[in-house]
Amino acid sequence: MKVQVKVLEKNDDIITLLEEWLTINNSQKSVKTNDDILVFLEKHGKFNLDTEEFDSTLLRLEKWAKANKKIILLTSSAIFCVCISSLPFYFNYTSNDKIEPGIHYVEGAENIIEDYNLKHNNLKSLEKKVTSPLGITLDDYQKMKEKAFVEQMNLEEENRKKLEEEMNLLEEERVKEEKIYIKLYSDIYGLDYEKVYQILSDITDNFKDENYINNYVIGESMMKNKYVTCTSKEMAILIAVRNLYLNSSLYNSSYENLKIEKEYTTELSYSYQISYITNVLGLDSALSYAICKSECNFNSTMFRNKNNPGGIKFGDTFATFPNKTAGFIEQSLILLSYKISGRETIESIGKIYAPVPTKKENESEEEARERNLNSQWVSNVTSIYNSALNQYEELFGDVSTISLLPQEEKVITEEEFYIKEYSDIYGLDYEKVYQILSDITDNFKDENYVNNYVIGNSKLNGRLVICHSKEMAILLALRNIYFYPEQYGYSSFELKTNTPYKSDLDYAKQIAHASNVLDVDPVLNYAICKLKSNFNSPMFLVKHNPNNIRLSGNYVTFPSPMAGFIEEAIQLLESKLDGKNPLQEIKNDLEFNGISEFTSIYQYVMKNYTDIFGEEEITLGYEKLYVLE
User: Fold this and answer.
1) Residue 241 near residue 196 (C-beta atoms within 8 A)
2) Is there a domain that residue 442 lies in?
3) Which of the listed residues 495, 516, 541 is the one where a domain comes to its end?
């Protein structure tokens, strides 16, 4: 029995090959072959059997195979080829209980073992050296199978880990709000966030309890012995954390176990803090503010020392709060308790909050409070309240933009920092300049920028500048944008902000900084500017031009003194690029024009370098400083 195996790269190949056998005189009986079994092995997977062309060819080929008593196998299984080439005696197509002549499609190795009774033990007992036309031994197959099993197990483990990570991310997202609020109010009350989170998570079945999800209830939502109907997650968490702070024993914990040494601070004004808190609790910001201001004017001894804004007592003792924010929360919670009791006017609140201390015989405290009204307190609070309403926006702002959460400092890149610095120096729109340079450098990922600090052409008067730092590259690029905005699709009007640049550095240190970035001699730069302008000439004071610098024949007006110092440093850099010694060139030029003071100024600056430039602002680099002969 002879077996022919053909490996096909794509499905179309089988049609072409089959047609070759069937096209001779267009007769099913005219094609002759000495092979008993013809195997077509597809290299990249299953055949596509769903085309009319393929079906028609198979039908014709099946007639031919039966007429010629041939077996044609279509398979993507290499092991099938191994079996039929290694066991030619097994496939006796003339026997009724074996494979019949015709076309047979085999999906894989498992089908071979099961459909054709080739048991695993029989496979193992075969001669391992026998190979198929594809060069695969049965030993190879067993190794392939073991490898596939290991790969499958690894894949399943990898999928399990991915699923676990996805579930963790989903869980993290599910309780994201809770974590933010618990962290905020734990910080305000000086409590351990992890422990507080665990307590509240246990109470709410990890925040999946229906009463929490539907009604924002965390345990007994009690506040000052009154049940509170919460309207948000944040409100529920605020009250729960506050209760933990004041009475942690109710939660099988203790304040000593929960407290941490961490001070909460916020840059929000007192009125903005009150605005935020009252918004969470559904209260009138102006009313809470008016009571606090009436009680302490935000400057009383009790407010400063105890963070107590309204004479709040726990029992007979004036309460001390960990910070002003916690005090404002408690003051607002008192108003919330009044609101729950139906007291929302200043008069009705005043009867309880600040009654006149007179009591009739056989009269209860409650009755005395209801009878007495502190008219002066009501008058003060009403006056402040009305004033607050008149300046509501100024005092309380847009609550959607106010947050007690600490503002994280934005981490900026070097590019953002330098572009902002030099945009300010040149009075340009930072956002537009950043976009220009980002586009040129493919978001600062361009290899020429990353490896060589090159932005665009990086040329001065047609000469390529080799930059030694990102800052130098950005400075030169931004200077080009300032002078030649049309090359970048803008007019100078579109880019300029007309915002004056102010620097904390004196002129000497500005010169040192500009010189250091551009790799030129700061002493030379300073000496020239000092000699030509003394930093008080009309040219310098009006045009910020330290050395009568001209472009296109006209004296240049620079947007800031720093921009003028940069331009002087660039002129020195251009001299270096020409291969000259800038110091000697300038000395000769000045002496030729009868200016003899330059040498003495330069030597004076050299001798007093530290006094003029300081020690921290500049470190001299290679070939910056020249020796005056």
Assistant:
1) yes
2) yes
3) 495
Q: In terms of domains, do 487 and 515 share one?
A: no
Of the candidates 445, 462, 495, which is a domain's last residue? 495
Rounded distance between C-alpha atoms, residue 601 and residue 72, angstroms = 101
Split into its structural domains, the chain has a count of 5
Q: How many CA atoms lie within 13 A of 176 on its CB side?
A: 6
Please indicate, yes or no, whether residues 356 and 287 belong to a single structural domain of this protein: yes
CA angle 36, 40, 41 (to 5 degrees): 130
What does the alpha-carbon distance between residue 181 and residue 237 come to, in Å, rounded to a whole number? 7
The boundaries of the domain holding residue 232 are 176-258
Could you list the beta-strand ranges (E) of 370-480: 459-460, 463-464
Q: Is 3 helix (H, G, I), strand (E, B) or coil?
A: strand
Q: Which two tokens stand for residue 258?
A: 């929960």
Distance in angstroms (rounded) separating the CA atoms of residues 511 and 533: 14
Whether the full predicted model's pTM is greater than 0.85, yes or no, is: no
Other CB atoms within 10 A of residue 387 CB: 15
How remote is the C-alpha of 261 from its chain's centroid? Answer: 30
Distance of CA 622 to the CA centre of its chain: 39
Give 604-613 pLDDT, tens digit per residue.
Answer: 888 888 888 8
User: In terms of C-beta distances under 8 Å and separation of at least 24 residues, what long-range contacts does 28-32 make, across chains too?
Assistant: 28/60, 28/63, 28/64, 28/67, 29/64, 29/67, 29/68, 31/64, 31/68, 32/68
pLDDT digits (tens, 9 = 90+) for 378-415: 899 999 999 999 999 999 999 888 888 766 555 678 89
Model confidence over 157-183: pLDDT tens digits?
A: 888 888 888 888 888 888 999 999 999
Q: pLDDT digit string (tens) for 360-385?
A: 777 676 676 666 667 788 899 999 99
Do 29 and 129 lie in one domain? The reply is yes
CA dihedral 191, 193, 194, 195 (to 10 degrees): 30
Question: What residue type is assigned to position 109 of the chain?
Answer: A
**Tokens standing for 293?**
């201001």
List pLDDT tens digits, range 82-121.
565 544 434 444 444 456 778 777 665 555 544 444 444 4
Tell me the percentage of the chain whose pLDDT exceeds 90.
Answer: 37
- Which pair of structure tokens corresponds to residue 71? 């077996």
Question: Residue 29 burial (CB < 10 Å; 0-12/13-18/19+)?
Answer: exposed
pLDDT of residue 132: 45
Q: Looking at the structure, do residues 12 and 126 belong to the same domain, yes or no?
A: yes
